[in-house]
Write a structure and sequence with these properties.
598 residues, mainly alpha, Transcription Regulator spoIIAA, 8 strands, 6% strand
Length: 598
């Protein structure tokens, strides 16, 4: 490759690292350090791109990190602490070439919901609680990544994810409205806070100057949002800061950030009390799910853009390492950033060195110029968070879901309402419960059908869709289109007997066309045995066609295979039909004559 190439680095090549034969993938401890692999392949031509992109990125990291820290219930400086060391950790452990991690709006409501009622207004206690949430989240992510559980976030369906994120966005929006209007309100829950906000609004507590500054900041951010060249957040925040400083608007009640402490974050164990353990564990679990769901989606998106593979399990490890770093270096839970990553990409980022440069730039700010942001107005920070929250809402795809599957649309709406009414932590629990219910509902009453022969079409088809389909006398072909498990076993039993009862001729064989059946549990196996006993009492043979070998293996372990007999399991429906016709020649003759007549 030429030194002038500007494309992202290729995957690891054989011979450069210890690799599996023929794969080029590193083995041993090296596979857990993608950043080191990238460094060993680094090309000097990328350096100027990474350095320039890192400096541009730093201009976003500072105001956004401070804003999300305040939205999460901790002092603004801790947003920078949650940026510096975690970015370095992800650069080493994260598999994505240009992903940027840091404080995020999607986590703000979750963090705030935990620490606000527990901290009692003590900022140091709030930092400790948030730090321990990051430790819990990081530990869970690392364990899940090592155990190769990167698929777990796919268990939440798209409508449920939309509902949860819309609820989070609405919660964040409600939490920031009072700050935008220049006053504060009591209340922990979103609806209570919204009520208090409305009461304060009617009581005339709005600080008009603060509202004008915040409103102008928000308008400018939204106006410049579509521009890939102009950093809207940075321009708006600098403008608001300069305006407050030059006109002395803090004298008019516009609250400002104040001088930041000088120095870098230090290693500290976030101690909490025994009474805090359960809510912090629940919060850390919620953060782990939300942050990895966001990170995995963004990671896949940029993996496609840069044509580089990304392992979701290693992504979990990288995210976990970054959160552990945040928790032990005075930070709070972090996630991928859908606003800062595009900035890095647009600025020409080639590798994670961009994040390293950004982290170093933020650190230099704290060391050399901590007073630079002392006039940054809090109403402008609220505007930054509100702009991010607005970007979290999903409406377009929900409209599509409403058109094609209304019950899933209302499921999403219900999840959204649950998050807003119950809060972010119960909301994620509700989302998981709804996901399980959705799964069980689909399997609880699956499709089933009686099959017949349709003239001009090969195979056997649903007679409800093809009323002219012909049935073989005495034979019922019953298709069950789902796994057989405890939730639908009784329904399977009833539907199978209904199919027998509905037959226009006395039934001799019931053949379950079991190709869609991917699993059987003990409850379902017992119902199959019960069905066989019921049919045997009526002189009917129970058979199966196209049952997969792994499912047959389960029936063997349950003892059901030997009970029924290997002879009743047929590889295809055609083989089952042919065997039935050979067993009853008179039916075969009548069927043949009918075919000829047709």
């Amino acid at each position: 490759m030429s030194a002038s190439s500007a494309s992202p680095p290729p995957p690891s090549s054989p011979g450069r690292l210890a690799a599996r034969p023929g794969t080029g993938q590193p083995t041993g401890w090296l596979k857990w350090l993608p950043g080191l692999q990238s460094l060993r392949q680094y090309q000097i031509a990328w350096l100027r791109h990474d350095v320039a992109a890192g400096l541009v990125l730093a201009t976003m990291l500072v105001p956004v990190g401070i804003a999300y820290a305040v939205a999460s219930g901790v002092p603004g400086i801790y947003g920078l602490y949650a940026t510096i060391i975690p970015l370095l950790a992800y650069a080493l452990f994260g598999p994505s070439r240009i992903m940027v991690l840091g404080p995020d709006s999607s986590l703000a409501a979750v963090i705030l919901a935990v620490i606000l009622p527990l901290s009692g207004g003590d900022p140091l206690r709030a930092v400790a609680l948030a730090g321990m949430m990051a430790v819990v989240s990081g530990t869970l992510c690392i364990l899940a990544g090592v155990a190769r559980l990167g698929f777990v976030t796919e268990l939440l369906s798209k409508p449920i994810r939309y509902g949860y994120m819309n609820g989070i966005a609405l919660t964040v929006l409600i939490s920031q409205l009072p700050k935008l209007f220049g006053f504060s309100v009591a209340g922990d829950e979103p609806l209570h806070k919204l009520w208090e906000f409305a009461q304060a609004l009617l009581a005339g507590k709005t600080n008009v100057v603060a509202l004008l500054v915040g409103g102008a900041t928000l308008a400018l951010i939204l106006l410049l949002k579509r521009s890939k060249r102009l950093p809207g957040v940075l321009i708006a925040v600098i403008g608001a800061t300069v305006l407050v400083a030059t006109l002395g608007l803090d004298a008019y009640g516009v609250s400002v950030l104040g001088a930041l402490p000088q120095g870098l974050p230090a290693f500290a164990i976030p101690w909490i009390t025994p009474a805090d353990v359960v809510p912090v564990l629940m919060g850390g679990f919620a953060v782990a799910i939300v942050s990895f769901a966001d990170t995995s989606v963004l990671s896949r998106t940029y993996a496609e853009k840069t044509a580089t593979p990304v392992d979701p399990n290693q992504e979990m490890v990288g995210l976990g390492a970054a959160n552990l770093a945040a928790g032990f270096f005075q930070g709070f839970p972090i996630s991928s950033s859908s606003s800062r990553t595009p900035v890095a990409e647009a600025a020409g980022a080639r590798t994670q060195l961009t994040s390293v440069v950004g982290a170093v730039a933020v650190a230099l700010l704290l060391l050399l110029a901590p007073n630079l942001l002392q006039y940054l107005p809090n109403t402008a920070l609220a505007a930054v968070v509100i702009a991010a929250a607005l970007g979290l809402f999903e409406f377009a795809d929900l409209r599509r879901i409403y058109r094609i599957q209304r019950w899933e649309f209302w499921l999403s709406i219900g999840c959204c309402i649950g998050v807003v009414v119950l809060g972010a932590i119960p909301g994620i629990g509700l989302a998981i419960v709804l996901a399980v219910i959705e799964f069980l509902w689909d399997g609880w009453r699956p499709d089933s059908a009686v099959l017949g022969r349709v003239k001009g079409i090969n195979g056997y088809h649903d007679i409800s869709r093809y009323p002219d389909a012909r049935l073989i006398p005495g034979l019922v072909l019953f298709r069950w289109a789902a796994p057989l498990f405890f939730a639908n076993a009784e329904w399977f039993y009833e539907r199978a007997l209904d199919a027998v009862a509905a037959s226009p001729t006395p039934v001799r064989w019931l053949v379950i066309t079991a190709e869609p059946v991917t699993s059987v549990d003990v409850t379902a196996a017992d119902l199959v045995a019960k069905l066989d006993e019921t049919l045997q009492a009526a002189g009917i043979e129970l058979c199966f066609a196209e049952m997969k070998d792994p499912v047959q293996d389960k029936l063997k372990r349950f003892g059901l295979f030997s009970h029924l007999g290997a002879e009743v399991f047929f590889p295809t429906i055609g083989e089952a039909v042919n065997t039935y016709l050979r067993t009853y020649p008179e039916v075969a003759e009548a069927w043949k004559n009918r075919d000829n007549a047709a």
